[in-house]
Amino acid sequence: MPEITLIEGLRQAMDEELARDERVFIVGEDVGPRGGVFRATQGLFEKYGAGRVIDSPLAELSIVGVGIGAALYGMRPICEIQFADFIYPALNQIINEAAKICYRSAGEWTVPMVIRAPYGGGIGGGLYHSQSVETLFCHVPGLKVVIPSTPYDAKGLLKSAVRDPNPVLVFEPKKGYRLIKGEVPEGEGELVPLGQARITRQGSDLSVIAYGMMHYYCLQAAEAVARDGIEVEVVDLRTLKPLDKQAILSSIKKTGKVLIVHEDNLTGGFGAEIAAILADEAFTDLDAPIRRLAGPDVPAVPYSHPLQSWFMPDAEKIAAAMRDLAAY
């Protein structure tokens, strides 16, 4: 199988879905001839035309509003938000409309749309190009939230999201766009089901739960501590909502210790929800306190590269937390 980057996996998914279903279209800022700010849609405008790869005004509210309206009338929109930080003007459309239309219509109407957005730090983007926003949307019933960690999953999860009858937010770790590489089969890609976590490394001493860029670093950290005789099981959540609780609970039952890693601020981050589930449903399986490693509680990722490194968890910090927990 050829090795490709994470962003190439996303591009292949959109290309295949555009070819498969004429109802699929892409709308967002600079997604047309330019191919998006990260070139995720590069080449698709030339292949499918301006009617299906649509450059929008600089107005996130209208991007999502157009997507909702089109979805209600049978289309399958893929709405790109240029950076996750820019999604806030569209909150009313996402939370009060897309997430609730199926419920308010007693199932008569569904909103089969995808909202893609690059999230997280690590590229020197500063305050307004580095935020992690996933927890906000995980709180909203009616939405699904997906965060891929590998090219294979990026392709398979996005294809599943396009075909899902519900609104799905796909947050993509932008630092990993070209850094993370992996094998992906040629030809029509396989679907990766939403709501299923994956054990990406077997271990017996402790479990680490992560997603997105942090999963990439957790695998590196696990290999580092293995040289010290510590065997870490790595759980890649892949989908935050719906959450695969059984995969998490099964791993903790096996190892008895758990470290939860995410890039978002510690307080109120998604790791707190996982910790609450474990405290409620896996208390008797735990041999040590539940540990979390996350970004500090400051307003956003700093622009300064040394301060950005201070903010973000990385393989070295994760390995240190693994060693500390293993010794408990």
Describe the global form. Answer: globular
- Count of domain modules: 2
| CATH topology heading of the largest domain | Rossmann fold
What's the rounded overall pLDDT mean? 97
Main β-sheet description: 7 strands, mixed
Structural class: alpha/beta
Element-level helix/strand string: EHEHEHEHHEHEHEEEEHEEHEHEHH
Provide key terms for this protein.
7-stranded mixed β-sheet; 328 residues; 5-stranded mixed β-sheet; 12 helices; Rossmann fold; 14 strands; 20% strand; alpha/beta
Structural overview:
This protein is an alpha/beta fold and 328 residues long. The protein has 2 domains: 3-183, Thiamin diphosphate (ThDP)-binding fold, Pyr/PP domains (Rossmann fold); 198-326, Rossmann fold (3-Layer(aba) Sandwich). The chain contains 12 helices and 14 strands. It has helices at residues 6-20, 44-48, 60-72, 91-98, 101-104, 134-138, 151-163, 213-226, 245-255, 270-281, 305-311, 315-326, and strands spanning 3-5, 24-28, 53-55, 76-80, 114-119, 144-146, 168-173, 181-183, 198-201, 206-210, 232-236, 239-241, 258-265, 291-295. The strands form 3 sheets. Strands 3-2-4-5-7-6-12 form a 7-stranded mixed beta sheet, with helices on both faces. Helix 8 links the parallel strand 10 and strand 11. The longest helix has 15 residues, at 6-20. It is globular and about 60 Å long. The N and C termini lie far apart (42 Å).
